[in-house]
Amino acid sequence: MGTLSHVMRLTVSILVTLLITSKSVEGKKNVLVFIGDDAGFLQSAYNNTVCQTPNLDKLAARSLTFTQGYTSVSSCSPSRSVLLSGIPQHQNGMYGLRHIPHHFVSFDDVRSLPLVLASHGIRTGLIGKKHVGPPEVYKFDYERSTDQYINDQIGRNITFMHGFVKEFLQAKDDRPFFLYIGFYDSHRTRPQDIETFGPFHNLWGTGKPGMGLIKDWTPQVYNPDDVIVPYFLPDNDVTRRDIAAMYTSFGRMDQGIGLFLSELEKAGYLDDTLIMFTADNGIAFPNAKTNLYEPGMGEPMMISTPQNKHSWGQFSDALASTMDFTPTILDWFGVPYPDYALNGLKVSLTGRSLLPLTSSHLGAEQDFSVVYSSHDFHEVTMPYPMRVLRQGQYRLIHNLNNRMPYPLASDLFYSPTYMEILNRTKAGIPTKWFKTLQQYYYRDEWELFDLTFDPEELHNLAYEPSHADVLSGMKKKLIEWQWQTNDPWVCMPHGVLILGQCYPMLNEPAK
């Protein structure tokens, strides 16, 4: 009897354990974030009928897709720092690119998303491109990143990345998880490697002699005659070849997303994981990357929640931002934002959770009528701070250093598309571009565009009396946000900030 009693107790104990475990797994919430590098609107969900993106198409079919998703800053490291902290780059301190010789990092006291989640018992992981610092601020429990591996291996080799994704998802750890996967596609190739690997590293990993083989990637090669040339680029053979190469690189990311989502499903997490997809900034072409016009600020953005399947396959016109990712993820986990100060000012999130948009479209989009962006540097040699408010049909840009010519990121300068514009301009040959180089380089301090009637943003309304009231109202709102986020540039370019007040410098140009 004693033995039977022991067996019964053991059996009951096992059943209880299984029930508890089952309930725990069933109620668990996880997050998976994909972020592309210089990735644009190339998937079918954004009406690109040429670039083949079957895996992003599948994700879109189970996501809410944003038609007006925006980056918080059109530069790699600063953008990623905002997504992972919830606060703008001028507040978190990552004013430009992290790596040598640029050397920008966030302030030591920033409470990043991985730190906040870890303090609430959530397992954190990063696979792929990181490009933010310092390590103590952006610390993940599990990290296989560009801090440890060659960029192309950990960010483009989807087979290499897959091993780490599998390792993370199959770990014997019952905690909910946050997994952040950063691709290096579709970033441009370094200038010294373009001839060998193609302008978007599109030849690397193809299995051809000297290229190595990414066994999980089936390269897609495009005819330049078939690609879609966006309005902000010149339509010529050089640009078309450039875009075709980008499509191939983008397709490698798409196949990686499919591979990793399959691994998520195999691990049993597909039905309890919030999945988000976006990019850091616009595509690596003129008028896009590093700019805060529509092509540089606009980003692909999707959010898939297993709790609100009625939002799958739907589209939202809400103005959403990468600044909304941190509050969304905290909302998903039910984790409060920490109460802390940074540089003497209490930190509060100005982004919003996107989850209400997935549960109901009745009035929810009205709360997403404005979005802000903030840019200071890309490379350290590119001081061109901008503050932007996108509201309704208007975009307001404040160019704080507009008296200098707009600086060019090195990868944009050596791109075939830009070199063609430069050489044609030098030779006095028509560029077939929608702007001249002079218009691109020299900008008004204030730029106000009506995107409904001027989607190409060529007609600046900031100095037209008919839009004085619009300009005044948007200026006021933008400056209020700058004060709220402790912006060191809030008094620029005509004043200096001292002890919380702006003092005029009387530096207007002579008339």
TrEMBL record:
Name of this chain's protein: N-sulphoglucosamine sulphohydrolase
Signal peptide: 1-27
Domain Sulfatase N-terminal: 29-335
Cofactor(s) needed by this chain: Ca(2+)
One Pfam match: SGSH_C
Alphabetized PANTHER family for the sequence: N-ACETYLGLUCOSAMINE-6-SULFATASE FAMILY MEMBER, N-SULPHOGLUCOSAMINE SULPHOHYDROLASE
Family: Belongs to the sulfatase family.
Statement: the UniProt record of this protein carries the keyword Signal: yes
Taxonomic lineage from the root: Eukaryota, Metazoa, Spiralia, Lophotrochozoa, Mollusca
The entry's keywords: Signal
Domain N-sulphoglucosamine sulphohydrolase C-terminal: 424-482
InterPro entries given in the database record: Alkaline_phosphatase_core_sf (IPR017850), SGSH_C (IPR032506), Sulfatase_N (IPR000917)
Organism of origin: Aplysia californica (California sea hare)
Transmembrane intervals: none
CDD domains with a match to the protein in the record: SGSH
Gene3D superfamilies linked: Alkaline Phosphatase, subunit A
UniProt key word Signal: yes
